[in-house]
What does this fold into?
Amino acid sequence: MSRRDKYQDDNDAQQVFDDLIAYFSRNGNENPDPIFHPDNSVNKMMQARTAPLRKASVLIPITRHGAGNNSEIVLTVRSENLNSHAGQVSLPGGSADDMDVDVVATALRESEEEIGLAQDKVEVIGRLGDMALPSGFQITPIVGLIEPGLQLKPCPIEVAEIFHVPLSLLLDRNAYTSSTMNYDKQSRKVLELQFERFRIWGATAAILYHLAQMIAEEKSRV
It folds into this structure.
């Protein structure tokens, strides 16, 4: 049985989706906790930074759960032609433009440009806290629901591939492992999750793990 089959056949898949909805019904936009890096040395480096960070947003597109359609999250593989993070798994999104009225507008516009997800097909249910990146960006993740089966089309300049991962897998904190990578001449701890042939790691894994952690903590208090 593949990892996808394990989580798609999981009897708790409906409960995982319900827990997500319940969390954002209570915590949609109310002062969300910031997202920290798993390596505290990176957090200290970002706190000491004096240069301003560029604003950016990503969308966490989650398909609705239904009969025969267990909920999934849409992820992308970045084009090899990009100057930064080429070939890495990412959430759709990007830098804020002057035309964007807020962080939600940025996430929706960028997702439409990158994967052809029409803005009116997304029901925004909340946001996560900001995450400061050593690359000089401050990312705000926006969470939105979409219908399953939408025809998405990658913009080849930015996106090499679009794929879906079971929500119940990405919200399972035990599915994540730690590894190390070299950054700024130091070994840094990063989170990662392997799904089929895709390695989900770095900021994307940290964002999704944070979402899983927030939902689990909220559920334990209810």
User: Anything to note?
Assistant: The chain has a mean pLDDT of 90. DSSP finds six helices and eleven strands in the chain. The CA atoms of residues 43 and 180 lie 15 Å apart. The chain has one domain: 3-217.
